[in-house]
Amino acid sequence: MDFACGTSIATDCLDLNMPWGEDWAFQLLVGDAVETSQVLIKLAVTYVASSFTPNMIKGINALRCMVAALGENFWNLIAAAYWAATAFG
Q1: Helix 54-87 / helix 23-48 crossing angle, nearest 10 deg
Q2: How is the chain split into domains, by residue range?
């Protein structure tokens, strides 16, 4: 199996067309990014939590909550920018 990372498109994805003219596409894209960031934050805390103070862990948890809340609504801004760019050509 040959992985051409960053140089070509996988054959399974060649016919995958994302309908960027629909809002659910933006919501899906941002939702996936938020879920990925949540996993990365949780993994980072798991590996280095023993060296953190309780207040630092609370701060990281607050950061994780902020990313989740912002991310779930950020797709609206991305969709608005897309529609503005579409309207002005």
Answers
A1: 160
A2: 41-89
Give the predicted TM-score (pTM) of the model: 0.59
Compute the distance between CA of residue 32 and CA of residue 22 in angstroms, rounded to an integer.
17
Instruction: Write out pLDDT tens, residues 52-68.
Output: 888 988 888 888 888 88
The full DSSP string for 19-86 is -TTSHHHHHHHHHHHHHHHHHHHHHHHHHHGGGS-HHHHHHHHHHHHHHHHHHHHHHHHHHHHHHHHH
Decide if 45 contacts 60 (C-beta within 8 A): yes
